[in-house]
Amino acid sequence: MNRREDFTEMALGLVSAQSFPAIVGIADHMLKSSGVTLVGYEKIGSGHCTAIVRGNVADVRLAVQEGAERAEQFGQKLATLVVPRPMPSLEVVLPIGNRLAQLATGRGHSKLSNQAVGLLETRGFPAMVGAADAMLKAAEVVLAAYETIGAGLCTAIVRGSVANVAMALDVGMVEAERIGELHAVMLVPRPLDDLDQTLPLASCWIEEMQPLNIPLSVKETEKETVALPELKQEMKELTIANSDRLLPEPFQPEAQPFVPEAMPLEQPLAVERSVEVMDVANELEADPTTDVASSAPPAKRRQIRRRDRRQ
Questions:
Q1: What is the pLDDT of residues 82-106, one digit of tens each?
Q2: How far is Cα of residue 295 from the mean position of the Cα atoms in its chain?
Q3: CA–CA separation, 78 vs 47, rounded Å?
Q4: Residues 6+ apart with CB under 8 A from 166
Q5: Given pLDDT bands bounded at 50, 70 and 90, which one contains residue 178?
Q6: Class assignment of domain 3-105?
Q7: What values do phi and psi take at 43, rounded to 5?
Q8: Hey, do 3-105 and 109-206 end up sharing a CATH topology, with the first three levels equal?
Q9: pLDDT, position 45
């Protein structure tokens, strides 16, 4: 679907009044009586304000008719207009198209949404300031913004609960008449989203979405252990109690290190024994009657044999 086909299905409705509180009340009645969308307001000076709505032809005609009846109740001199199929160039040039809708919806979330709206209009800025101060001191309301439309007309806009806004408006009217000229008063108990987004709002009441900053590197801090005196004493008592219950271990002799003993050399002993065997054999050959089983040591026996031989 192209842009021209979009505009051929829509219609424009315009209702004009000479008071900002009055035009806000008219716009609220138009939104609640028909399925239209509030584009915004156009202020041309000398107190003239125009509410602009969009929708299909039937809804726009019904909204404009209801707005005109509401304006007559307020005693306003008004002008109305219904444009069934506006040309695209008309939407682009005049400040009644998508630009106002984007300005109305692209300002962020309001902290004062879903609260009643109170508008008090005076002729002269001092009267408006005095009335706003009296309203803030008389009830639990906040000053959302103020609007000027020319011809010396200034409007203070307060937000709060319905009861608080009604009380604040009563006090503000008395103060405005004391200081200067009271021009108009309006209370909107339950404003719709379209109306809420088109009302002026101070920057302090706007919440803008902030990006979530995620740290790239997370540093972990080392945790230090803290010794508790009570816990330390309890652990000590538990250790002593457990040590009393332990059985004595069986005695085990201390293991001695293994040291290998030096082995005697067998070679000389073998040679000596072989010599002794040979001597015994010689003695047997020489004297068969020799007592070989004598208990004398071999060295002594050899000395004896040598002496016998010499003899």
A1: 988 888 777 666 655 554 555 555 5
A2: 112
A3: 12
A4: 118, 187
A5: very high
A6: alpha beta
A7: -115, 120
A8: yes
A9: 87
Q: Alpha helices of the chain — where are they, by DSSP H?
A: 3-8, 20-33, 57-74, 88-93, 98-105, 125-138, 162-179, 193-198, 229-245, 267-286, 298-310
Spatial separation of the C-alpha atoms in residues 120 and 172, rounded to whole Å: 7
Which is more confident, 242 or 141? 141
The domain made up of 109-206 has a fold known as Alpha-Beta Plaits (3.30.70)
pTM metric for this prediction? 0.61
Separation of alpha carbons 204 and 107, rounded Å: 12
Q: What is the CA radius of gyration of the chain?
A: 59
Beta bridge partners of 50: 16, 42
What is the residue whose two structure tokens read 């199929």?
85
Please count the CA atoms within 13 angstroms of the CA of 112 that sit on its side-chain side: 26
- C-alpha span between 172 and 178 (Å, rounded): 10
The confidence band for 3, taking pLDDT boundaries of 50, 70 and 90, is very low
Per the CB < 8 A criterion, the answer to whether 48 and 77 are in contact is: no
What is the pLDDT confidence band of residue 234, given thresholds at 50, 70 and 90? confident
- Contacts of residue 154, Cβ cutoff 8 Å, sequence gap at least 6: 121, 122, 123, 124, 125, 127, 128, 146, 147, 148
For the chain, domain boundaries: 3-105, 109-206
SS3 157: strand
Q: Give the confidence band of 161 by pLDDT, cuts at 50, 70, 90.
A: very high
